[in-house]
Structures are given as structure tokens and as C-alpha cells.
Amino acid sequence: MLDIKRALTNDRLMRALTGLNRTAFEQLLPSFSVAYEAAHPISKTRKRAVGGGRKPTLKRMSEKLFFVLFYFKCYPTFDLAGLLFDVDRSQSNRWLHKLQPILEAALDREMVLPERQIKSMAEFTERFPAVERVIIDGVERPIQRPHDNVKQRRTYSGKKKRNTRKQIGACDQDKRILMLSPTHDGKFHDKCLLDCTLLVEHIPDDIPIQADLGFKGLEAEYENIHLPHKKPRGGQLSDEQKAENKAFNSQRVVVEHAFSGIKRYKAAADTYRNRKKDFDDRLIVTSAGLWNFYLKAA
Fold it and tell me: What is the average per-residue pLDDT within 245-273?
């Protein structure tokens, strides 16, 4: 059985098992406790005193938070999670689906969850006052190969050469995830997916938006789009254009670092194997919130 008390007092183990150090864990714990109590209010009509009935395995709030963070960081099967926490696999499944919305609510209280949609430029400026530039890109995660032929074709990504689910994300110059689109099947092209989500429509014109050539054509729609030079068909880029592309890519690589921050949590990086519909979207959003919280608490 996993020794939770030992992990909670060891900074190295905390980073390895939860993705947060002890200081960040203690900062998140009050918001998690408030979110948990809001989701499970004490009934005024109850007859049994608080504490009656079967004693819980995860007694303290810190243990509950540790469990859900451990799942996100290590992404164990429910059989393994049940073995480590000395419960049945069905209980570990119930714990996860009970605690994940609470963790997401706690991150929302900390104002670190990415936005799913911005409705106006004023809202963007109010929500992200310190943003100097926005970098957008697509992020994919592998899924198990569907048995249905239609689903196979719909989720097959020619870029990754496997079945995936995809989102468009936007980050700022400090690697913070600002926005995430809803999750779609991997067959979607980056530009088509962006057109469906309208993530950049309400970004102010004075904030530059950097993207790769997967968003070619976007520069004709918005004034603040910056793309690298594309090699002409049958031609070559000049030395000056190559140098500009190199400098541009060194700035745009921030978005790759941001996505790698999300994928520190294996629940957002490994092959998706949960059965709950659209739960992969919640895993990605919560992992992005954890990454933003990590940056905030660092």
C-alpha cells in the first residue's frame, strides 16, 4: 500500500507523484477543501451524527487531493490505483470521477483554468491584462484504435500516423495556457478546427498572434497574425527569410514548452483509455489548470 504520509512530507516524492511540490500542494489545499465542501454540503435533516457509518480510506482532505493529483501525474489503471490505495478498482474509479470535478473547481477558484471561449475583446483584456503576445498551435493525444471503421477514419491523424483527439491551444509569452478549444477528432486540420472554435476572433489587434504554417490563410483574416515564410513551390527561401524563420521559431517554441508542461501529467499525454464520454476533454483542461497553477506557485 502507498505510504501517503511519507509522500506528503517529502518534497521530491511530492513532485514525482503529484507534479506539485509541498508548498504548491499546501497552497491548493484550501481551495480544494472549499470546493469539496460546496459539492458535499452537510444535510440539515440527517439523523446520524457526522462521522458515523463506515470509516473512509481517504480520511483527510490532503489525502483526497493527493489521490486525484496522483492519478493525473501517473495515470495508473484503476486496478493499480486500487492496489496502491488498498481499495477495490471500482472504488478508485468512483473516487476519480468524484474528485476530478472538485479539483477542477478548486483550480477555477485559483483563476488558473484556461478559457474555453472569449466573447469580446474587453473580456480578453480584463482576463489577461499582462499578455504581450499569443502563440497558438494544435495539441494531440493518442487514443485506443476504435473498432468501428467510421470512427477509425474520423480519429486518424495523418500527422501523427495514429488515432488521436485534438485541441487548439493558445499560450502567452510566459508559457501560461490562456485558452483551449473543445476536443475534436484527430482528422481535423488545425486551421479548420480554429475556424470552428473562434479562439482568436476577440484577441485585441495590438497583441500579435504567432502561429505555424498549419494556420496558413489566417493572416488574410486578421491583421495581427504572424506566420513564418513558406517555401515557394519549385523555389527556395532566401538566406534572409531563413534567418527570419529561425528567429520566429525561437519565439514560437514557447507554445511547445507550454504543451509539454500539460503533458507532465500522464493523464493528458498517455494513450487515452477511460470509457466516460468526453472525459478526455476534462483531463486536458484540468491538466492545463494544474500547469498554470504550477507556474503561479513556482
Answer: 94
